Amino acid sequence: MRFNRREFMQCALAAGVSMGAGSMLGACAGVRRLDLPQQPEALRANPALDESRREILYHAALAPSGHNSQPWRVRIESTDEWIVEADPERRLQAVDPDNRELMLSLGAFAENLSLAAGAVGYDAKIQVVAKEYFDRDVIRVSLRTDHPNPYPLGRITRRMTARPGYRSDEIRAADIEALRAAADGRLFYFPKSSPHADRIRDGVVECSRIQSLRDAAQRELVSWLRLSDRDALEHRDGLTAEGMDIQGFKGWIVRHFIEPENFMKTTFRQKGIDQTARLAAQGGGWLVITSSGRTVADLIEAGRLFERMALLTRERGIGLHPTTQILEEKHGIDLFASHHGSRVIPQFVIRVGYLDKYPEPVSLRRPVEWFAPYQQFTHMS
Ligand SMILES: Cc1cc2nc3c(=O)[nH]c(=O)nc-3n(C[C@H](O)[C@H](O)[C@H](O)COP(=O)(O)O)c2cc1C
Asked: Which residue CA neighbors atom 9 of ligand 1 most closely?
């Protein structure tokens, strides 16, 4: 591990002083999305993708995904016919054994893709072709030049999962109405003061505890940690120190001296549980997004609705934090079933709250050519 004494001194100093610390904290920062070029020069550009089509895929891939696993691959069948595949190498077997969350993430990817296509002058027809949760081919995309639908791309580039610093005031009715409309009415808000919110908070904390103590789940989390700058640059996915809000001097220490394997230790697991409890106590309540059924198409639709809603939150100063453990562990699944029966199908449980200072996105993404590599067209239209 490379130890840079000057960088260390700057970081340590910035952590210890208040005046002028901001400028020095830059020296402590880890790899952040905005520091990286969209397309590393060494990569051979995919000749099937002109600039507009590359832009569409670049924005699609800014979608959120569990552990930032980015479980998508794109097969370019012809210039305007693409297949979005589920990447089996990027499954989260321990926490998402059925691929439910993987499909939600592909739904968010499809939504960004469709909106970005509109922004650069195309209409993208999105057709779910998968029938089973484990099908490889999930979505067929057909690009056409009719009916473009302009959309501000800045909403996509600046959307992020924000975690600390939520205010405790409840979300205004007008904001909830706007988010609910974007989610086609499938969004429910439980204000902080409601008994429901207390039950969700307690469920989230308990499920986080259960999951942290489940070795397979913790081991899977460890496999997606990209703590050193080197790992972050090599993979451009997963959870970086910056992405987990470990910044400044603390971030510097973690990036240089902590191995992902340390997260298997009891002390680290306990820190994670404590952090979840602290965060769960912050904010103005909880959002739940439901689906109308359990088919693959229903999951893709739920992912699209989540993303459409999430894209509106920054301009309203609202932070969103999916807290999925409650839908992954039996304790949480039973909790929802006991209060709502089987007719209500929750797909996202999200902590929500106003932020005084909205951070800029830091989570990394793989360049387009990594997930849409050049192949000879498999079919010509
Ligand atoms: C299906 C799904 C489940 C997620 N679950 C969690 C979660 O349980 N806890 C969490 O902190 N973030 C969760 N996230 C957020 C991801 O960690 C986040 O999207 C990813 O790290 C990329 O960061 P970004 O959203 O800022 O671009 C989830 C996202 C999705 C789409």
From this structure: 323
